[in-house]
Amino acid sequence: MADWEEVKRLAADFQKVQLSSTTQKLSERNCVEIVSWLIDRKLIDLIFTTDGKEYITASHLITNIQDELYIAGGRINLVELAKIIGVDLTHINNHLNEVLKNRKDIHNILGQLIDSSYVDRIAGEINEKLQQNGQISVGDLTLSYDLPADFLQHQVVEKHLGKLIFGQQDKNDAKVFFTEGFVARSKAQLRGALVGLTRPTSVASILNQIGLSEKLFFSLFDQSCMYGILSSRLPGAQYIPNCYLRSQVEWVNNFYKQNGYLEYDSLTRIGINDYKTFLKKQLPNEELFYLASVVVLKRILDRIEADIEECVSSKTYVDLQSNLPSSFTSKDISILLEKLLSGQNKQQTIVIEDFVISKSFLESLSSKCEELVKEKAKSVVESGKYQKHIIEIQGSQTKSHRSDDFEEKVDKKEERRKKAAGGKSGGGTQGRETKTKSTKKHFRGGNKNEDEDDEVAPSESKKQFEVVNESEIREILQGYLEEEGVDVLTDPLTTYLTPKLNEQGLQIAAEIFQTTVADRTASRKQTHNELQTKLNALISDVRLFEKGLKLLPADIQPQLVKYLLKTVCTDVATEILSYVAGETMSSSVPENFNNDQRLKFVNELSPEFKVPLLPLVKSLTGQSIDEFMSAAETALAACSMIIKKVDKKKDRVTVLNHKHELLEKLNHCDDLALVLHLATLIIFTTTTQCMLHASGRHISTVLTYLKSSLAEDQYTELMSYHDFVTLMLSNGSEAESAKVKLKEKVQTVKNIANEFKKVSTEKT
């Protein structure tokens, strides 16, 4: 039975199972995939939370936004709202318009939601501040509530003005609100401040004292303007009380009536900056003259004009600085004089610093310097400075102009040029035909006469050439001006008179030079002839010396030629260069020149001298006497000089005279070494009838050459003397003993030289 029961029970369970339905359960992953599939096909609209585990609908999101805004007190940041709800900020922004559309009392302000409850609350707070402070500005509220100024002004303050906020809006500044009590209190403060001021005060200072805003000040000032005026409506304006304006007018009227002028600085100090407009308004009937630092009335100009006329008539001067108030500057005086000096007064006066000086007074001062000017003019002519300056000025003209002007002036040179160009001529100069050119450079004036030349030269050089200097003129003027009590004018008058006195000095110098030019021409002609004679004598000596040295051995001749070029030929070149330096008014002294200095001097000359003189200077360092002679002839032609023809009779006389000069020197010579030198040259001249120019180092060679013409004892004596001279000049240990020996032999050597002539004559 039990087993059957068990079977029945099992059958019942099976039947129960067959009749029951099957229950299915989905996993979380399957649910996510199903919802995602429905969202993708837009079959449902759900929003994921930030953790991705929950979904909310849009309507639920909107409800959450409104709930959270209420919980936050009517103001919440959208970023914070998204964090609280747990959704992305994008979903908040996407559904924000729907929230604002359903709720008109909610505002979206700079990423914040604000509802009317919050606006009402801050309106109450603003009213409390307004009642407490008396005024409030939207700018301050912006800082307090961190909200835009427009929102606070239009949606909060203006919307609740008269309801929750009790006050009034400033008509001049819509962003400022104040209470009526504050306006009344501020007006009273402003009135008290304006009444108490007696001098111009900046609006900024007034505002700092009474604590008003600038805009409110200008608004309330219009109701209190009876106490003064404002310079402008700008931030840097000044308030000027009426009492101060009255004192300005009173001071100006009193000062100008008493003194006849007004200082700009004084007007500025009392607050009058636009003085022209002010004076035109206050002194409409007065004739005013505006200077650099003062404005003057016509009566002062009349007074100064009278002083100037008195200065002209009395032939003196007037010190305007002492005749005018001390506030007048030099520039003021200058402007005054421009207005006053005209016509005859202007022609008869000059202005120096603050003095008006009559020209008659200046002439009297110039007359005191006349003697000095005459002395200095004479001095510059005698020293040659005037002539040199004239040549420097003429040197700036063209070469063709110089040559044309030159030929008109130099009568002596022109005459010489014609004689030379006319061919060969005899006479005292023996008529060598040479090409000559004029070298005188004074008076270049084209077809003008000499008077015109002398007048032109000073006018061209008055600013460059100084006859008298300022220190000399100052010394004369100083004493006189100190007596007059105007020593302050010493320097300016010296500066003014110096160029005029120099011009006068140049005219005097021109006159002096013109009167002495004839005498100078005659003197130059004599000097020219003397130099020509001297140079011919030197050149003749060079020629004769060259003839003598050619008798000696060929190996020593180059040394003797070089010595001759270095001595006698150099003397010829120096004489020529000195002459040219004088002709060109050069300050150089060729006598002291070495060869480099001679080349530099010649290179600085004009082409008419440079071209012929350059070969002459170069030949001095050469090895040829013929080259020197050729260059010397060309150089002399450039200096309008000629070389005389060779005259054998005169050559014999020259050799004889040279020998006598050597004998004269020998007999009076105490120099032990020079005695041998002179004796050797005398013997050579007597033997060869030729002149020799040799140095002491060549004496041994000359004695060797003369050995055949000397007696054996004479030659031995001379060579022995030569050896002792060598020992003496060596300054060795035997120098003193050699000197003793020479003193013993010196008379013997002199006798040999003196007697050699007699022996030679007897043999002849």
TrEMBL record:
Domain E3 UFM1-protein ligase 1-like N-terminal intervals: 6-279
Region (Disordered) residue spans: 392-464
Biased composition (Basic and acidic residues): 401-414
UniProt GO MF annotations: ligase activity; UFM1 ligase activity
Residues in E3 UFM1-protein ligase 1-like domain copies: 528-646
Domain E3 UFM1-protein ligase-like C-terminal: 652-749
Biological process terms in GO annotation: protein K69-linked ufmylation; regulation of proteasomal ubiquitin-dependent protein catabolic process; response to endoplasmic reticulum stress
One term under GO cellular component: endoplasmic reticulum membrane
Domain of life, source organism: Eukaryota
Keywords: Ligase, Transferase, Ubl conjugation pathway
Function (record text): E3 UFM1-protein ligase that mediates ufmylation of target proteins.
Family recorded in the similarity comment: Belongs to the UFL1 family.
Protein name in UniProt: E3 UFM1-protein ligase 1 homolog
Protein source organism: Sitophilus oryzae (Rice weevil)
